Amino acid sequence: MEQVAEVQKSLREIKTRGEFLERFLKLSLGFWALFAGLLFPILAGVILLYEARLAIEKFGFIHFLTYTNWDPVQEDFGAATMIFGTVVSTLLSMLIAAPVAIGIAIFITELAPNWFKPIVSTAVELLAAIPSIIYGLWGFFILAPIMATKVEPWLQDKLGDVPLIGKLFQGAPTGVDVLTTSLVLSIMIIPFMAAVVRDAFNMVPPIMKESAYGLGATKWEVIRQVVIPYTASGIAGGLILSAGRALGETMAVTFLAGNNPQIPKSLLEPFTTITVALANQFTEADTDVYLSALYYAGLLLYLVSFTMLGIAKFMVLRLEKRWKT
Amino acid sequence: MSRKTLRKLFSNFMLFVSFLTAAYGIFWLFWILGSLFINGFKYLSPELIYLDPTPAGQEGGGLRPAFVGHLIITSLATIMGVPVGIMAGIYFAEYGRHSKFFMTLRQITDIMVSTPSILMGAVVYAVLVKPVGHFNGFSGAVALALLMLPVIAITTDEMLKLVPKELREAAYALGAYKWQVIKDVVMRAAKVGILTGVLLGVARIAGETAPLLFTSFNNNVLTFDLRDPMASLTVTMFNYVMGPYHYWHQQSWAAAFILTMGVLLLSIIARVLLHRNLLEPLFYIVRSITGKKGG
Q1: Which of A30, A37, A302 is opposite residue B106, by nearest beta carbon?
Q2: CB–CB of B11 and A221 under 8 A?
Q3: Cα of A64 to nearest chain B Cα, Å
Q4: Which residues from chain B sit within 8 angstroms of residue A275, using beta carbons?
Q5: Does A47 reside within a domain?
Q6: Which band of pLDDT confidence, cut at 50, 70 and 90, is reported for residue A88?
Q7: Residue A31, in any domain of the structure
Q8: Are residues A135 and A214 in the same domain?
Q9: Given CA atoms B250, B260, B212, B119 in this order, what sign does their dihedral have?
Q10: How many separate domains does chain A show?
Q11: Are residues A258 and A305 in the same domain?
Q12: pTM for the structure as a whole
């Protein structure tokens, strides 16, 4: 009898210990999940907001957004120049990157032989793995001089006299300008865009494509009329996702933008973006208002990129849901 | 020409265009890596690693503080970021799978992967640098750890998703507790995948500059004290490229070469671990040469 009681007792002990560990593990794991997905994003936003409070009080919202003067000496700040620069460089890089990324996705999913696919995929993914400061260094030392001496004079020569478009190519070509920045940015975001679009293309059920082939469609017609319409929301998601990336890109842009707080009149003029201003001026900000204005710009960047990435995520998820059920 | 051949021609033309876009992407990769190799290799020297920087303007010297600082900051960030990220990832995969709330949190974590890294620097500056009054190496490591956390959490979640449900059910049927299932079954099955995630996370933060600019800052002197400003390769490169001296530019090329090789090596190892079929082309070529079928 005693032995039975002992065994029962130790069994109970094992059970309570097991259950304790169970609860402990769930709580500690859950806390970090909560931290990663909720506390950390909110905390980051709150800290940015708190640090920006001085500038928010002083400059307001609409005024800060539309005012083009950025004068640390007079402590008179408006973020219009850097917001404009961020938006323009992002849009331009999207314009260059989108067709290329879709082309790469088509090549990988439809065209490349099976053994060649991983090579192209990996090569494109390696582009994403190169640190952004390397893009900056390479762009500054290698690409910018070529742009300044060869590409930009050539563009001016060919397009300078065309009405409307010609205006975009005026000014002295220096290589440190909107065009070079957008080109380098576009190279940096191609991998992200191509990866999302490729995954979307892969989700199209083979039967959809096969029935189009059965009707006598050519490969391009299948891509154009079956694959692309059915993955439209995935493609859009990929585009917005990479726009969100381009918005926050810092180091490459810092080298190539020229850090000139003005609204560029042509593609060949230096400009600035929110990230460039942060990287260059943060450690120099000697007054509270100056620092606070930089935090204000950072807060705007945080909110915009978070929203854009959220929308992109939603669109990609919608596509996934459609195909999974 | 009949309509049919026209359509076929157009189709082939468009496919050729898509081939050109792939070539365009790879062209940039080779150009960047090529110029890194040529310039980086030229200026690579052992002095770079074991000498301290000379006073500005004086030729020679090396980047010892930057190499040491980079190693310290990156390892410390890895030590802080990896366990936390893995823990969050396990929760998302094992407990939160059926909870709408935690699935939303997972999506938010995924969004945090892409938030501008410079903002992490700004946030950490407000918490760990401003109150202390000076830049310090520890804050740099925290900024990188925060950057790494979502990456690790998401890859861990993805990798645990790949573990078949039947494995878990078999363990439950033997009367295992959930923590036992996680520790002895799921983690064991997914360990290669999680290692891949860690490698990718390290590769991601090793090349980061922006979050370090105003947290760990820069230092011309070798230091092991985390309370001091600490040099890192990336921040040093940032200052050197913008600087006026030619030998600074040469040293940053060499540093860029070493950094890129390290980062690319990490991501290539991670990819080979993950999809072993990456080596498939090699096998294919070997097979076609030896003329053997299968393998």
Answers
A1: A37
A2: yes
A3: 19
A4: 116, 118, 210
A5: no
A6: very high
A7: yes
A8: yes
A9: positive
A10: 2
A11: yes
A12: 0.90
Per-residue confidence (pLDDT) for residue B293, from 0 to 100: 46
Q: Tell if the CB–CB gap between B116 and A37 is shorter than 8 Å.
A: no
Residue B290 — very low, low, confident or very high, per pLDDT cuts 50/70/90? Answer: low
CB of A131 within 8 Å of any CB in chain B? yes
DSSP labels, A233-300: HHHHHHHHHHHHHHHH--HHHHHHHB---S--SSTTS-B--HHHHHHHHGGG--SHHHHHHHHHHHHH
Nearest chain A alpha carbon to B206: A131
Q: Which ipTM was obtained for this model?
A: 0.89
Q: Which residues of B touch A33 (CB under 8 A)?
A: 87-88, 91-92, 95-96, 102, 105, 153
CB contact under 8 A, A136 and B177: no
Q: Which two tokens stand for residue A78?
A: 């408006």
- Is residue A18 located within the same domain as residue A121? no
Task: For residue range B142-163, list pLDDT tens digits in order.
Answer: 999 999 999 999 999 999 988 8
In B44-116, which ranges are continuous DSSP H helix? 47-50, 64-90, 100-113
**Is residue A32 domain-shared with residue A68, that is, in the same domain?**
no
pLDDT at A55: 92
Domains, chain B, ordered by start: 59-275 (1.10.3720.10)
Given an 8 Å threshold on Cβ–Cβ distance, is B29 in contact with A244? no
| Measured distance CA(A153)–CA(A147) in Å, rounded | 8
- Whether residue A305 is found in the same domain as residue A240: yes
A49 located within any domain: no
Which tens digit of pLDDT belongs to each residue from A107-123? Answer: 999 888 888 888 888 88
CA distance A49 to A297: 10
Q: How many interface pairs between A and B have CB atoms less than 8 angstroms apart? A: 274
What range does the domain containing A128 cover?
Answer: 57-324
Give the three-class secondary structure for A77.
strand
Closest partner CB to A29 (pick from B20, B87, B213): B87
| CA dist., res. B135 & res. A13, Å (int) | 51
Please report which confidence band the pLDDT of residue B286 belongs to, taking 50, 70 and 90 as the band edges: low
- What CATH number does residue A273 fall under? 1.10.3720.10
Torsional sign, CA B31, B210, A248, B105 = positive
Within 171-190 of A, beta carbons closer than 8 Å to B belong to 187, 190
Q: Is the distance from CB of A32 to CB of B87 less than 8 angstroms?
A: yes
**For residue A224, how many C-alpha atoms fall within 13 Å in the half-sphere facing its CB?**
11
Query: A195 in the Ramachandran plot: left (φ > 0), alpha (ψ -120 to 50) or beta?
Result: alpha
- Record the tokens describing residue B114, joined without a space: 């892409």
Same domain, A13 and A115: no
pLDDT tops 70 at residue B288 = no
Look up tokens 């939303």; give the residue.
B104
Answer yes or no: do A156 and A63 share one domain.
Answer: yes
pLDDT of residue B295 exceeding 50, the answer is no
* A45 band by pLDDT with thresholds 50, 70 and 90: very high
In tens, the pLDDT along B167-222 reads 999 999 998 888 889 989 999 888 888 998 899 899 989 999 999 998 988 888 88
Q: State the nearest Cα–Cα gap between B34 and chain A, in angstroms.
A: 11
pLDDT category at A53 given cuts 50, 70, 90 is very high
Do A10 and A106 belong to one domain?
A: no
- Average pLDDT of span B39-54: 86
Q: Is residue A265 assigned to a domain?
A: yes
Which residues 210-239 in chain A show a CB within 8 A of chain B? 218-221, 223-224
